[in-house]
Amino acid sequence: MTQILISPVFGLHTTLAQNLKMGAVLTVVSIARSFALRRLFEAIHVRPRQLSSRRTICAPKKGEVS
Fold first, then answer.
1. CA 30 – CA 23 distance, rounded (Å)
2. Residues 53, 33: contact at Cβ < 8 Å?
3. Distance, CA of 39 to CA of 22 (rounded, Å)
4. What pLDDT shows up at residue 37?
């Protein structure tokens, strides 16, 4: 839908069929890129940082010195 509105701004006048084809190609490219990036990060084992079990997140109890 965006292509139908934006294309004429750049002087590109396309038919509905051409817009649908471009939209389909861009969708396939986007899905393939997402898939490839997901697999890449899984391959290099990027994981969120985990808090150390010894680290205290809460404030100290009343009377305790931290």
1. 10
2. no
3. 26
4. 95
Apex 2 CA angle, 39 and 23, nearest 5: 50
Counted domains in the chain: 1
Supply the mean pLDDT for the chain. Answer: 81
pTM of structure: 0.57
Amino acid at 47: R
The string of DSSP letters for 45-64 reads T-------TT---SPPPTT-
Q: Is residue 29, in this structure, part of any structural domain at all?
A: yes
Integer Cα distance of 12 and 32 in angstroms:
26
